[in-house]
Structures are given as structure tokens and as C-alpha cells.
């Protein structure tokens, strides 16, 4: 089945109109910006990741995972997701159409967070690539959460462990000095992102972050494949 731009544009237009009228989605989009404003009020230095990494991570997790999950779960709640799954639209068209609005929201929120927080002298191209990879990963997680949850409100509850483990785990676990937990945290994409940002803040380049980029790419491929598999299974479940 060929990819139809007409169907894709129709889905994107519908999702965008629904999204900008949804107070739950708008509230989620505003939370990372508020956090960035709060962090911008403190004295920051080049070694302090909180003023840059945390607002970006929270923006990606909320707009990438939670907003995506809420949009998918809302379609399930309205019994319209099944119609999309059984329509002539391909899996790629549906998932890309549902994700395009999330990407737009995420880019806007991340841009505002970065502008508010202030960006140090780092390679913006590498930072943008890592941010995009992490966004795709969390959008895949959000799609999975939305397919699992029964309602839009339930998606926030199901997705809460994502925020706690994948976002705050790499930030707070190192302070506990528990080697077993740290061995697990090191594999998380959010930890790879933070480690790469640290390298950039210290003047590193591609050589220093190529391992982190590779692991983020592997995470993107694995979560994407899992997302397509879960969608296919959901399509044929009664």
C-alpha cells in the first residue's frame, strides 16, 4: 500500500485542530516551559546540567510521551482508533499522522524551553540531532502507552513511570551511590542524552558523543519496531 499524502494531511489537520482545543494537552505543553522559567531564575554554570538538560528532558517526556499517549488513548476512548486501523490508511500513515502534531507541539515547547533556559556555547547541530532521536524514542513510548491505556486520563497514570524512571532516574540515582541501580540507568536513553550533553558542555565533539548517538539510534529502532508491532496487534484485537 502506497503512502498517501492526502490522507496524511487530513489526519495532521484533524489532530492539530483537536490538539489546540484540548486543555489537557495545552496544560501538558505548558508545564515544561514553566519548569524552564523556574530553572532560569537560578545561577547557572557550564557544569550545571539542570538549566539545560532537565527542561529539555521534561519537554520531550511530556510533549513526546504524555501528549502522544493522551491523543492515542482519546481516539480509543471515542472508538475512532479502530476505524482508523481498519481504514485504507497504512500503519505508517496513521502513526505518522498521529505523531505529526506531537512533533509540532514538542518542537515549539523545546524551542521555548531552550530560549528561556539559555544555551551555552555548544554544537547546536549535535544537540538538535540528540534531541530529535530522544523525541522519537519517547513518542514511541507514548504511542505504546496510548495503546495500552483505556482512556485519556488513564494514559497519564500509565505513563507516570516513564517520567519517574526515564527522566528523573539518571538525575537522582547517581546521588544514591547504588551500583546495581546505576548499571541499569546507564542503559536508558535519557542517561545517554545527559552524558552526551555533558560532553558537549565540556567542549566535546562527534568523537566524544558518537557512542551515545549510536545507543540512542538503537533505542529509536527498537522502540519504533515495538510500536509498529503493538499497533498491528491492537488492530486485530476485538
Shape: globular
Low-confidence stretches: none
Whole-number mean pLDDT? 79
Order of helices and strands: HHHHHHHHHHH
Beta-strand residue fraction:
under 5%
Helix content: over 70%
The whole-angstrom Rg is 18 Å
- Main beta sheet: strand number and arrangement? none
The computed structural class is mainly alpha
Note the total helix count.
Answer: 11
Count all strands and give the number: 0
Through-space gap between termini: 24 Å
Describe the structure.
- With 238 residues, this protein is mostly helical.
- The chain is built from eleven helices and no strands.
- The longest helix is centred in the C-terminal third of the chain and has 31 residues, at 206-236.
Summarize the structure.
The chain is mainly alpha-helical and 238 residues long. It has 11 helices and no strands. The model has no long low-confidence stretch (mean pLDDT 79).
Features:
11 helices, 238 residues, mainly alpha
How does the SSE layout of this entry go?
Layout: H1 5-20, H2 23-40, H3 53-77, H4 81-85, H5 91-117, H6 124-148, H7 152-167, H8 169-176, H9 179-185, H10 189-201, H11 206-236
Helix pairs in contact: 1-5, 2-3, 2-5, 3-5, 3-6, 3-7, 6-7, 6-10, 6-11, 10-11
Amino acid at each position: 500500500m502506497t503512502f498517501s499524502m492526502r490522507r496524511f494531511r487530513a489526519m495532521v489537520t484533524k489532530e492539530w485542530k483537536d490538539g489546540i482545543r484540548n486543555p489537557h494537552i495545552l496544560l501538558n505543553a505548558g508545564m515544561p516551559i514553566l519548569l524552564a522559567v523556574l530553572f532560569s531564575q537560578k545561577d547557572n554554570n557550564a557544569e550545571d546540567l539542570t538549566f539545560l538538560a532537565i527542561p529539555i528532558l521534561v519537554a520531550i517526556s511530556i510533549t513526546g510521551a504524555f501528549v502522544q499517549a493522551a491523543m492515542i488513548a482519546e481516539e480509543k476512548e471515542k472508538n475512532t482508533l479502530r476505524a482508523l486501523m481498519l481504514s485504507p490508511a497504512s500503519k505508517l500513515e496513521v502513526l505518522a499522522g498521529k505523531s505529526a502534531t506531537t512533533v509540532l507541539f514538542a518542537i515549539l515547547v523545546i524551542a521555548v524551553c531552550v530560549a528561556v533556559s539559555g544555551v551555552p556555547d555548544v554544537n547546536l547541530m549535535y544537540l538538535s540531532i540528540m534531541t530529535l532521536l530522544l523525541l522519537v524514542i519517547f513518542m514511541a513510548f507514548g504511542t505504546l502507552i496510548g495503546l495500552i491505556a483505556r482512556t485519556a486520563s488513564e494514559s497519564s497514570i500509565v505513563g507516570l513511570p516513564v517520567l519517574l524512571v526515564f527522566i528523573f532516574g539518571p538525575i537522582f540515582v547517581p546521588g544514591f551511590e547504588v551500583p546495581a541501580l546505576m548499571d541499569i540507568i546507564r542503559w536508558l536513553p535519557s542517561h545517554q542524552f545527559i552524558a552526551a550533553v555533558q560532553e558537549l558542555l565540556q567542549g566535546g565533539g562527534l568523537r566524544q558523543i558518537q557512542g551515545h548517538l549510536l545507543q540512542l539510534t538503537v533505542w529509536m529502532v527498537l522502540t519504533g519496531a515495538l510500536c509498529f508491532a503493538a499497533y498491528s496487534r491492537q488492530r486485530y484485537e476485538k
